[in-house]
Amino acid sequence: MGRARRARRIAQRAAYGGGVGAAGIGALGLLGWGLLKVEARITRRLVGPSTGDAPDDDGLYGSGAGTPLRLLVLGDSTAAGLGAEHPHQTIGATIASGVAAFSGRPVELTNVAVSGAESTGLDEQVERGLAAVTAPDVALVLIGANDVTHRIERSVAVRHLEMAVRRLRESGSEVVVGTCPDLGAIEPLQQPLRSLARRWSRDLAAAQTVAVVEAGGRAVSIGDLLSAVFSAEPKVMFSSDRFHPSPAGYARVAAALMPTVSAALDLFGERSAPTPPNVRRGEGVDPVAVAATRAVANPGTEVAPTEVGGQSRGPRGRWAMLLHRVRPVAVPSSDPRPRPDDHDETATDERGSVDAAPGTATSDPDRDPNRDSDRDSDRDPERDSSVTSDARV
């Protein structure tokens, strides 16, 4: 089954309240399950202790004339900034400072993220956030890693994320979601746990993207954004626990998110003068499940709602715009290690050309159509054993 179909199915089950419990042993069998349990115990020994409390980054950033822009941050310890040494080093603070500099207006940051949070905890965070900031200009959500490590049923996790996005949109806020990071990029993980973590992370990220776009938000793939850099300079990019990003790691994630946050605030003037997608960069319009799968394979990719011929939906569901607003360049490793299990996955059988208005790109003519094909096995991923770890982010 292609990842695009899996993402759409998970999102559909989320919409209808489907999903009970975590995935079982399934096709891996007792022997495979025992091996994964051993690998998980090894990983818990290798991952160091948590780096203490996240810094309090609430406050006013930048200066200038005008009413401060209001930024609300929700999610897990990545959103909270666990691993940062000072408040100004968190993702929220970095983005607030950047937006303030670019817009010429101060930014008021309110962070209600909770270390260890799963998607089910977003309901309470939204309530607290909107109580503190009645009408945020933009809300940034970073969530998903704990749903994978603690075997949360994906449709349940996605349903709570979608409800959070809808509630924030109803408040008048623009919403940007950084989807589940690729946990297969965490260095202490060994095979076969690494491959399983990668697959679960990417499947959840794709389903999150579908749900976010359906709810009217913008999704940005985090994926293995830190992987190559971690291999080159692990002591620089990750904190001492080898699990949470360091200040340098947070800066890299913030760089991928800030262009989309800026676009959501209309700092580029796109609402009055939309910019067509660049075909040669692989940008375009696709059914949302296909766009989500393409984004998962390319960290830093934005997927946002769009229309084709005045219609928001086509035969294969919601139309979505895929944009590469930022293309982070990894620091080259002096001793690059091949990752045979790391491949781009897109269900090319579901990709359809779009009858778009002039100037709207639908696909990249220079793109190898086989490059994004889904090479996962045909077995149902929900019958695979999930990743289990005590590490929370």
Automatic annotation (TrEMBL):
InterPro entries, alphabetically?
Ester_Hydrolysis_Enzymes (IPR051532), SGNH_hydro (IPR013830), SGNH_hydro_sf (IPR036514)
Annotated region (Disordered) at 296-393
Compositional bias (Basic and acidic residues) spans? Answer: 336-353, 364-393
Q: Which residues form the SGNH hydrolase-type esterase domain?
A: 73-252
| Record field: transmembrane | 14-36
Keyword line: Membrane, Transmembrane, Transmembrane helix
Gene Ontology molecular-function annotations: phosphatidylcholine lysophospholipase activity
Organism superkingdom: Bacteria
Q: What is this protein called?
A: Lysophospholipase L1-like esterase
